[in-house]
Amino acid sequence: MGKKIAVVCHAASVSKPGYYKWLNRQGQSPKDYNDYLLIKTIFDKGKKKLGWRSIQMRLTNEYGLNVNHKKIRRVMNKYGLVCQARRKNPYKAIMKKTKEHRTFENLLDRKFEQCVPKKVLCTDITYLYYALGRKAYLSVIKDIATGEILAWELSMNIELGFVIKTVIKLGQLPNALIHSDQGSHYTSPFYSQIISALGLTQSMSRKGNCIDNAPMESFFGHLKDELDFKSCNTFQELTFRVNEYMQYYNHQRYQWGLKKMTPAQYRDHLLAENSA
């Protein structure tokens, strides 16, 4: 390569140093290109997810080269080696949108034996895998007294909106209590405003204590055991099956703990009993 460059320089009546200066001005320094080839080798081995810090460490530890980070960044920018950074967790991103998130006292305090319908509710979110790895999110509100599922919403993302839609489906329930965990959706100021507008009072589990919301954990366990959601090929098919299951659960699934009634039957039973 060096001899060919010398021949070209002689024919063009330019010096080799002058030729290299011209290459540098054009952004085509052979030295940069050799550095690029080495950096790209490391970059590709890292599945295009390595930034300059990771590349610098590998150059030092695997190749014994001490390369300045500014040079690595310059070469990467010059040749378009853009790190495909991990996507941020959307659940954490929601928390960072505002510093006004707040938690509420555990007013339910595991008092799961209730006898008045639509007075003490619990809510939570779970995920359902379908179509060979795609994930959907399910928001549910359950009546603790009757076990009835009062509202639900399925979503392809975990943004706040689908939780808001769930409580809006619930409608106004003055003086009722709604219990959740301390997830960012439920500590959101907007969620709290909606809850207040519907006449509900918020209650929250203690941090990291899923037993405080045991009725929801129990329901999600039954749903995932009984609903064939993994075989769904589309979100629309999953939505249909979830809706179908909710109707089955409320109106056809008899439960020993509800005096062998369905949740809907037990609700009517409690209403009749309380009005007597």
Describe the overall structure.
- Helix content is 48%, strand content 13%.
- The protein has 276 residues and is α/β, with parallel strands linked by helices.
- The protein has two domains: 2-78; 101-275, 2-Layer Sandwich (Nucleotidyltransferase, domain 5).
- A five-stranded mixed beta sheet has the order 3-2-1-4-5, with helices on both faces.
- Helix 4 packs across helix 5 (69-78).
- The longest helix is centred in the C-terminal third of the chain and has 17 residues, at 235-251.
- The radius of gyration is 31 Å and the shape is elongated.
- The model has no long low-confidence stretch (mean pLDDT 85).
Provide a compact summary of the structure:
The protein is of the alpha/beta class.
